[in-house]
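debug: dumping io for the single-chain case to check the tokenizer round-trip. Nothing else runs in this session.
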Amino acid sequence: MSAQQPTDQRRDDDAAETAHASAAEAAASESSAEEAALREEESEIAADYLEELLDIADLDGDIEIEVHQNRTFLSVVAEGEQAEDLKMLVGKHGEVLDSLQELVRLSVLAATGNRSRLILDIAGHRERRKGELRRLAEEAVASVRESGKDRHLQPLSPYERKLVHDFVAELGFLSASEGEGPKRHIVVTGPREAAEDAASVAGADAADAAGGATGGVPGAPGAVPQHPDPAEVTVDFTAPGEEPA
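debug: decoded output
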């Protein structure tokens, strides 16, 4: 009887674990389906808005839609002279494109009540810019490696800052954002390994200090300094230049 009870208990535990796993998979599948439906709705609304915009501006272009990591990417593309015409929707430094992207996001918000994180590209501007940002990250890392000093980059949009952070991380270095509003920019610091080593040393020092707080062998790492007996302390009152008594 006693041998049968553990077996039954194991079976019950296995059944409960299987049921829990199945429920988790079902919840994940449902969440994934809901997310896919949201991205599809977002894409349709954004595409309709862009098509209307192109008609108003009397511009031709095809709209391509992709979804990566639960984020919608829309691209307006064309060839030849039509591609050149689309550049008027980009601006000299992409400022017009950024404004249009915000308008498209607002159209999604107005229609669904959900904030959008979609990315809009026109005439391949963001792809070209992505290459420029990669080179910027490589140059900054090379500068930090050679000089040992932090490198401050020019202000960038949130999306471009994320790209640069990713590029810097791929190169094994650390970066952080500083500043506020239009002055927010990236600072490239030292290698990730050096920071990890420093953190490891700091952790070891903290552990030693914590251990030393309870005492220890004099001279050993983490040991509490042994103070001399006040009765054994001698004070030299000899004035400078005089011989000790």
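debug: round-trip ok. Residues 213-245 have pLDDT under 50 and may be disordered.
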